[in-house]
Amino acid sequence: MRRAAALWTSAAAAGFALTACGTGGGGQTAPTKVPANAVHVHVTASNFQWTMDRTTLKTGVPVDFIVQSSESTHGFRLIGSNISVTVSAGQPPVHVVWTPPKPGQYTIQCDVFCGSGHANMFKTFTVQ
Ligand SMILES: [Cu+2]
After folding, report:
1. Listed residue (38, 66, 37, 62) closest to 53, CA to CA
2. How far is the CA of 37 from the centre of ligand 1 (A)?
3. How far is the centre of ligand 1, averaged over its atoms, from the C-alpha of 97 (Å)?
């Protein structure tokens, strides 16, 4: 939560939005700036892989990545963007809103060293 908030300023300046999940309890509700037409994609980090419930996205259609970790701490980095968010097991999911700028193959890579499988911890998805 603290890290997501710290990233907010640079994230907003870069044209994408990070919001903390408002349903995690604790009495704090962050504003959710997820566009109404966003496609929701659940992303889960574990040792040592990414799981996405959708791997084909559309150019120009906002994506709400709902990122969480089921095991230890990992970094959700979307190569080619400024997105880099750390997620830890036991913490609420973090929403990362991103609009695919053009068709192609995109890669999510872990940017927090997490152990022996860290170097291979990436996931590719397609934007049509
Ligand atoms: Cu890692």
Report:
1. 66
2. 31
3. 21
pTM for the complete prediction? 0.76
Could you read off the pLDDT of 55-111 as tens digits, one per residue? Answer: 999 999 999 999 999 999 999 999 999 999 999 999 999 999 999 999 999 999 999
Q: Is 121 exposed, middle or buried (0-12, 13-18, 19+ CB in 10 A)?
A: buried
Cα 71 to ligand 1 centroid, rounded to whole Å: 11
Rounded distance from Cα 112 to ligand 1 centre (Å): 5
CA 36 to ligand 1 centroid distance, Å: 32
What pLDDT is attached to residue 2?
A: 46
Asked if 75 contacts 110 with a C-beta cutoff of 8 angstroms, the reply is yes
Tracing tokens 């150019």 back to the chain, one arrives at 59
pLDDT at site 44: 98
Domains of the chain with CATH codes: 2-127 (2.60.40.420)
Residue 20 CA, ligand 1 centroid: distance in Å: 21
